[in-house]
Structures are given as C-alpha cells and as structure tokens.
Amino acid sequence: MELTITQPDDFHLHLRDGALLEAVAPHSAKHFGRAIVMPNLKPPITTTSSAISYRESILKAIPKTSNFNPLMTLYLTDTTTPHEIQIAKKSGYVYGIKLYPAGATTNSQDGVTDLFGNCYSVLEEMVEQGLPLLVHGEVTNPEVDVFDREKVFIETILEPLIQRLPQLKVVMEHITTMDAVKFVESCKEGYVAATVTPQHILLNRNALFQGGLQPHNYCLPVLKREIHRQAIVSAITSGSKRFFLGTDSAPHDRRNKECACGCAGIYNSPVALSLYAKAGALNKLEAFTSFNGPDFYGIPRNKSKIKLRKSPWKVPECLSFPFGDIIPMFAGETLDWEALLI
To answer: How many Cα atoms within 13 Å fall on the side-chain side of residue 8?
Structure first.
C-alpha cells in the first residue's frame, strides 16, 4: 500500500547549534520542505540579526542538494521591543515569536516572567505586523502539579490573552491535553491553532515508566493520561483545520538524557512521518501534515510530493556521531510505514 501526499512542513522543530545542528539538520531536510525553527539556544535568538545568522548556519548544515527552508522565530523576553517586531516582520525571515514562560523547559531561563506586565506593547505590535505568538503553554508555579500545568496556563494566561487581543494569531505548541483541544476548538478559526507531536499522539504517561524509568520518553510538556492522548488523536483525525504537524523533535546527546537529571526532549525527526501515518485516518493525513500549517501561517503549500509506503522497517538503536549518540524515538522497534522522496 502506498500513499502520495504533498511534502509536509514541520511547524515546531529544535535544531540546536554546533555539532548537534550538523548531525540532525539533514534528518529534517530529508522529509520536510520547511520548518519553524525554535530559538531556545544558548544564548537565545532574541534579535532578527541573530535569527538570520542562525538560518545561515542551518543552511550550511544541510545537503547542498536540499531545498529545505528554515523559517525563523524570535525568543520573546521581558525586554523585547515593538521595534524589534517591526524589524523581524520586515526581514522576511521571521515567521513567529516564541513565548517560553521562564523556567518552563530547555533553555527557557531567559523567558517571560510577566506576559501582560512586560510584553503587552510587543503583543499589540505583533497584531499590527501579523506575526503569530508561538506558545509553550505551561505555568511554572511549583505549587501546580506538573500534569496540570497546561490546563492552568490556558485558564490563567491564554484565555485572558485571547479576550484582550482577539486579533492576535496564536499557536499553542505541542498540545498534550483534552483541555487544550477544547480550548483551540472554542476559539475563532484562523486565529488560534495548535501543533501536535508524534509522542503525544502515540504515547501516554505510562510510557515513562514501563519496564523501568524511560528517559528517552521524557519531554516537556510531559506525556499525559490516556484520555488526553485519545482526545488529541480525535482532533487531528477529525479533519479540523485548527491542528497541524509540529514534531517538537528535540535532540540531546545520550549522556544528557541518561543521567541523574536528564534533559527533556524526544528526538523524532527520522521517524516522524512514519509515526503520524501510524495514527490512522489516512484520508485526513495530507491536510494535517501539509495543508493546515501553511494555510494558518499564510504561506504557499509545497508543490513537491512525498510517498508513504506500508513496508516494515527497523528504527536504529542509536545514531552515532563524533560527539556521542542520539537515541531516536521508538529506537530498535519496527514501524509499518516508510517515508520516501519522489
């Protein structure tokens, strides 16, 4: 069985920098036409000039024959200015502004501490410029249970934000709960959307503990209960235009995952399309992977095609590089679908 679809884009991707960037960028460039690239480096990408420099580094890391196009983002801070938003839009290279609540995830220590108090004029300028806010939707209050942080973020930050700035385009990244699905569906279509990862489609929180602690299944936002996984699968297979592909592929050296305080992040770029196909509803797959994201961002759909063939293949146990190993999602397991370029 084969399925030919328009080449997908990845609307939430971590490429890191340095040797790690050189290792992983070709995997995304192999299957995806474009990607919204996250800015949480050290130091973070907070200016348009640094975003353009980072883009040049990405292009050097992919094969010369590749047409992969990185779409850049800026890291929102308490000191971001409306003028920087104007520069970003004018550049033609920046497609979104990323909100990390300070301390929420990897390299988020420079994130926002008070969105309404410190960033409201920036948000207003984003409305004027048509730049979407890309949201890591978790509160960081240590008194809030880690499994409830997305729900509380919606109630305390997102709902008031949409009420105050209804014309602001918002992407709720890597949604993990039924609450997020319901929130996105309740908003005006075309203004609020969500990306969905392979891990939150296929895994629930049991995957963190089956057979012992599984560090390579640890990501943020953390995996949730089965009822939430089912709600997300229902959302992406419903045909709704509000949900689209965003892998949140986040590579780390194996040593930084298998240690006393392991990093959050699942590396799925080499297997992502195989895993999205595994979710089912193949007649809705092309819209989810290839149409909904470009339509929301207001960019053309890709013209190239990619083929998905039902043919078992084994995921490598690890990917080895001079600096160390990266463990891919579903390492050592057999997948039913294989992605092929046409």
So the answer is: 26
CA 310/CA 327 separation, integer angstroms? 24
| Residue at 10: amino acid letter | D
pLDDT at 121 over 90: yes
* Alpha carbon distance 282, 152 (integer Å): 33
Instruction: Write down the pTM of the prediction.
Output: 0.97
Identify the band that residue 21 occupies on the pLDDT scale cut at 50, 70 and 90: very high
Between the CA of residue 285 and those of 63, 144, 208, 245, what are the distances in Å?
A: 27, 35, 27, 10
Core vs surface per residue 146-183: b (16+ CB within 10 A) or e: ebebbbbbbeebbeebbeebeebbbbbbbbbbbbbbeb
Q: CA 151 → CA 106, 245, 340, distances in Å?
A: 20, 21, 38
Catalytic residues: 12, 14, 98, 136, 174, 248
Tell me the C-alpha distance between 307 and 192, whole Å.
30
Alpha-carbon gap, residue 247 to 199, rounded angstroms: 8
Q: Give the full edge-to-edge strand order of the sheet including 334-341.
A: 2-6, 305-314, 334-341
The set of residues, in sequence order, having a beta carbon less than 8 Å from that of 341 and lying 6+ positions away, is 30, 31, 306, 307
Burial 212-221 (b: 16+ CB within 10 A, else e): eeebbbbbbb
Of the candidates 86, 63, 62, 64, the residue with the CA atom closest to the CA atom of residue 74: 86
- CB-based contact 319:23 (threshold 8 Å): yes
